[in-house]
Amino acid sequence: MRSDQRSSKWLKLAAISGLLFLHLPLLLIFLYAFTTEATSYQFPPPGLTLDWFEVTWNRADVWEALGLSVKVASISTVIALVLGTLCAAAVSRSRFFGREAISLLVILPIALPGIVTGISLRSAFNLADIPYSTLTIILGHATFCVVVVYNNAVARFRRLSISMIEASMDLGANSFQTFRYIVLPNIATAMLAGGMLAFALSFDEVIVTTFTAGQQATLPIWMLEELVRPRQRPVTNVVAMVVVLVTFLPILGAYYLTRSGTDTAGAGK
Amino acid sequence: MTVAVEFKKVSRHFGAVKAVDEVDLKIDEGSFFAMLGPSGSGKTTSLRLISGFDQPSAGSIHIFGEACETTPPNRRPVNTVFQDYALFPHLTIRDNVAYGLMVRGVKKSLRHQEADEMLSLVKLDSYGDRKPAQLSGGQRQRVALARALVNKPRVLLLDEPLGALDLKLREQMQEELKALQQRLGITFVFVTHDQTEALSMADQIAVFNEGGIVQTGTPEEVYQRPRTKFVADFVGSSNLVPPQISAQLGGQSRWSSLKPEALTLIKHEGAGVVGTIKTVRYLGATNRVTIQVGETELSALLSNSGASWNKGDHVGLQVKPGALYAMEEST
Fold first, then answer.
1. In degrees rounded to 5, what are phi and psi of residue B164?
2. Residue boundaries of the structural domains of chain B
3. A45 vs B: CB within 8 A
4. pTM of the model
5. 0.85 surpassed by complex ipTM
């Protein structure tokens, strides 16, 4: 009895330390968004202020970086949604030679270190004489965004019973109608979840972006540059807070969508 | 009589596996046709060939006289009730039933009205607004039926539709299906591995084995006069009599089927075929007696009013004239 209590106390302590280890740095970043000291991170902060929010709001470079990040994340998410869903449909709906290999190859980009993806994309763009631009960043991000969408969609497709699609055809629907009225409603939440994750991944990507960007800076790149220039440091913290919120919400949304979506498809039995 | 579905030397091979091999088949319009066989015998593949989800490797399929090997499923005058029902989980019951009308562009008010009529036909009047997950297995089965019937198909295909139901519900649905078929006059093609289901519901039965049809006929024909050992064994409760014993009992020197009620016992002295009683089971008005004859075990259904027999008795066997029905196999 006593030892049970003690061990559960130790477990609680371990859990709390784990959480602190994970989230204390985050809290520090939040804290320094309010500090009055502009050049160094001294602890404790000499004073608290909301001024940095106004400063950040008025900085054009922040808006430019944010705009670019949103644009890149949105477009690569759309590309990923189309390609990832089609890939998932092909792999789960039909059998063909090399199906397993394709399945593996689609997932590989997320397992590969970003630096390898980055270098290979860079040399590919060089070879093809594509100038580094917003387009190359988008292409770079799409490589790993496709994986997330694919993973979500493929799981849903597996649960979508094939006889449902046959039933639709049997009742007179053509392929387009079957996709529109049967397949799409059943995979929509999975696509949304995958899309949100893809957006969040793209939004805070650094490594691939450094290799594929030209002169432009996405938000994370801008932050890296800002850290080495000790000018209005807390502005970076304010932006970091925004990034945390912007990426956290979609991930949370994706989590709830996939969790409640377990009984939506293939419930014919 | 019009032929609804006709197979002419139809084969469907998957690599080396001959799922359906050179099958000839005629299904009359308005009949309740059962495809009966064990799993892997080709009955479901045959059904999929009719619905269009599968194409024959060779041969031709005619639906109401029209060759349709290349017609896609959505252009055939047939509809299917799937084994797992395949209801659309995201649509209400009413929209499930109205789906076939919706994709044909029927107006919403009209298609909902027709869907409600169909639901009333399968006795689910008040269930239109629910989702499939809220229905029991038997109710889903009826929805699947209503959904397939709303398109007014000329042939309705049913793929083991009662397989997932419990025994009591299955018997009830058997009667309802039969009544529905007679009322609508549509051709029903029904796949099952359950011989009592096929015998009790169908007008015509095709017995499948190893990719081919072994015998086609009315339930009486298939049951009473099985053409092969396989049919006798799969469909009936008949005795399988080896050629030698069959000949001794006055039949042909072939494997023969013999119904238990056509076998009688006499005192063994002087009888041609003798055996030993292994078991006697009391069934009220009759006794079911099993007799060991050499290596064969035969079963007889004897009236309780005659002589009484006990386990271990040596007895002679007699059969009623013409009761031994010779099958194809002579060895």
1. -90, 0
2. 3-234, 242-326
3. no
4. 0.75
5. no
